[in-house]
Amino acid sequence: MAASNGTMVAVGIRSRRTYSIEVYIPDAVATQLTFNPSGLATATSPTTWIPPEDAVITDITTPTAPTAVGATIQINNAAAAGATFRWANVLNTLATRQRLAIPVRAGSLVGALQF
């Protein structure tokens, strides 16, 4: 497989605003995903996203699964509870893909590490 792009979705707790963050998924194990909330994410995009308000990450999707098996979302450099997923279960073609419910505080550093 090759590197691919995906999308992470978060919903603001108070405003109910939907944040669609583009994600770059490298084709290698033990690599950080990169994020861009205002355009296509690339290998040189930031490795963290900072939510502007308290939010809940509700979804992450990708069109193809990279070589890595999956990833763990990290909040302030620590693995978030219940935030490990396999790429095969979050393909955007799956209507039954795994849904997430990961709370994040405004100003937290949200990242993801592949395994």
Tell me what you see in this structure.
This protein is globular. 0% of the residues lie in helices and 43% in strands. The mean pLDDT is 94. The chain has one domain (4-114). It has no helices and eight strands. It has 115 residues and is mainly beta. It has a five-stranded antiparallel sheet, with no helix packed on it. A three-stranded antiparallel sheet has the order 6-5-8, with no helix packed on it.
Biggest beta-sheet profile: 5 strands, antiparallel
Unreliable residue stretches? none
Mean pLDDT, as a whole number? Answer: 94
Order of helices and strands: EEEEEEEE
Number of strand segments? 8
Key features?
43% strand; 5-stranded antiparallel sheet; globular; mainly beta; 3-stranded antiparallel sheet; 115 residues
Short structural description:
With 115 residues, the protein is an all-beta fold. It is built from no helices and 8 strands.
How does the SSE layout of this entry go?
Blueprint: E1 4-12, E2 18-25, E3 34-36, E4 55-61, E5 70-75, E6 78-86, E7 102-104, E8 110-114
Antiparallel strand pairs: 1-2, 1-4, 2-3, 4-7, 5-6, 5-8
